[in-house]
């Protein structure tokens, strides 16, 4: 199996705006988000389809994502965070955590944002700070 772009991000071969990490999962900002704060949560094992992840990963990914979503909701103006599993862009299981104010915020067919690295860094710092303050 060819290493995916997400595996290269986990290994540090491609830079990312990391939000959180543990032994099984890695969370980082989507560099072409639907809205500010759009975060991807990925398993550190290479699995193409989300539901093909080992059962312990399936049960733990939401527990890992929960404090991330809470931190996003505290620092990004939104009504709540929505979760989506689409998985067509990259053949590596991933969960989208997306701040929502309306249904169009989670519409993957619309034009995505192109924030600068500086804007992504500011968003990363806000979320990471909120995440560390809740632990």
Outline the structure in words:
There is one protein chain. By secondary structure, this protein is an alpha+beta fold. The protein is built from three helices and five strands. The protein has a five-stranded antiparallel beta sheet with strand order 1-2-3-5-4. The termini are far apart. The mean pLDDT is 95.
* Helix proportion range: 25-40%
**Overall strand count:** 5
Q: From the helix content, strand content and strand pairing, which structural class follows? A: alpha+beta
Radius of gyration: 14 Å
Termini Cα gap: 37 Å
**Amount of beta strand:** 15-25%
What is the mean pLDDT?
A: 95
**How many helical elements?**
3
Say what oligomer this is. Answer: single chain
Which segments are poorly predicted (pLDDT under 50) over 5 or more consecutive residues? none
Shape from CA axes? Answer: globular
- Element order, helices and strands? HEEEHEEH
Which strand order does the major sheet show? 1-2-3-5-4
Describe the largest sheet: 5 strands, antiparallel
């Amino acid at each position: 199996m060819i290493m995916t772009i997400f595996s290269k991000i986990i290994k540090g071969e491609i830079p990312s705006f990391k939000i959180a990490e543990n032994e099984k999962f890695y969370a980082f900002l989507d560099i072409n988000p639907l809205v500010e704060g759009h975060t991807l949560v990925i398993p550190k094992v290479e699995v193409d389809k989300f539901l093909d992840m080992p059962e312990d990963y399936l049960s733990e990914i939401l527990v890992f994502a929960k404090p991330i979503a809470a931190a996003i909701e505290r620092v990004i103006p939104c009504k709540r965070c929505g979760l989506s599993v689409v998985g067509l862009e990259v053949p590596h299981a991933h969960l989208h955590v997306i701040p929502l104010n309306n249904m169009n915020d989670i519409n993957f067919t619309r034009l995505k944002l192109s924030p600068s690295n500086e804007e992504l860094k500011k968003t990363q710092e806000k979320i990471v700070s909120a995440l560390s303050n809740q632990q």
